[in-house]
Design goal:
2 domains, alpha/beta, five-stranded mixed β-sheet, 8 helices, 251 residues, globular
Length: 251
């Protein structure tokens, strides 16, 4: 058996099991493909995972250390000054837990009985006392990154909106505007020379979390049904499963 992929999880972590919770990534999976979501959370068979991007994780870790330095000082990071953002990193005793995978910011949603959670990269606070959700991203592209206009960026936007919703449900005043701190690895240098240089940009995004409550109701209805939902027409996993089934049946 693969050491990386164990498809059938312990039933304690399936829907209605004592350890199950609705994470931010699971909400996004439901938006991507209800069938994959159902097979994962109700039936307990997950999609094969992607390999972790160790370089991206390293960039995230260094960003957190860097912004924590200014958090302790209670002052603006140079990137905030560069882009004219009137804010400082938010100080709160729960920050480490809010950032930790499998913990994060939590909220019990009475209407569905779901515990919803999500691990945020960072939170800033502006002079009005509004919290600002911040997400770190890293990549390496030739073009300058200054917008989120690709279809696959929709997942990034939903990610931020879930964090904004979670903070509001925990009683905080949250700005509609969040920021993506985007690091783009440059490949136009003369040589590697044992270092990779990044261009860092700050991209603002005005979130709208109004879709979350109806989506939670849809998720509840889906999970409580015995009927496996239709696959998304854009789901490569479901397309592959169907193609394999067709090939084997016609063998």
């Amino acid at each position: 058996m693969s050491q990386y992929y164990k498809p059938h999880r312990n039933i304690l972590w399936n829907y209605r099991g004592p350890n199950w919770r609705l994470s931010r990534s699971k909400i996004d999976l439901f938006k991507e493909c209800p069938r994959c979501f159902y097979i994962d959370n109700k039936l307990g068979t997950a999609r094969p995972p992607g390999f972790p991007f160790a370089l991206n994780s390293a960039v995230d870790t260094l960003f957190k250390k860097e912004f924590d330095f200014y958090r302790v000082k209670g002052s603006r990071h140079p990137l905030m000054e560069q882009y004219g953002v009137e804010a400082v990193p938010f100080k709160n005793s729960n920050m480490n837990e809010w950032r930790e995978n499998f913990k994060g910011i939590k909220y019990y949603h009475d209407k569905t009985g779901f515990t919803v959670s999500g691990a945020v990269d960072d939170i800033w606070i502006n002079p009005k006392g509004e919290l600002i959700v911040v997400d770190y991203k890293s990549t390496s592209k030739e073009e300058e990154i200054n917008s989120l206009d690709k279809d696959w960026h929709n997942g990034y936007k939903r990610q931020m909106e879930v964090y904004q919703w979670l903070l509001r449900k925990n009683g905080f005043t949250v700005s509609d505007t969040g920021y993506f701190v985007y690091a783009n690895g440059k490949t136009d240098r003369e040589a590697f020379d044992k270092k990779l240089e990044f261009e860092v940009t700050l991209i603002s995004y005005k979130g709208d979390d109004s879709w979350i409550e109806p989506t939670l109701s849809e998720i509840k209805k889906t999970l409580d049904s015995d009927k496996v939902p239709e696959a998304s027409s854009e789901c490569d996993y479901c397309t592959y499963r169907k193609a394999v089934k067709d090939v084997l049946e016609n063998k």
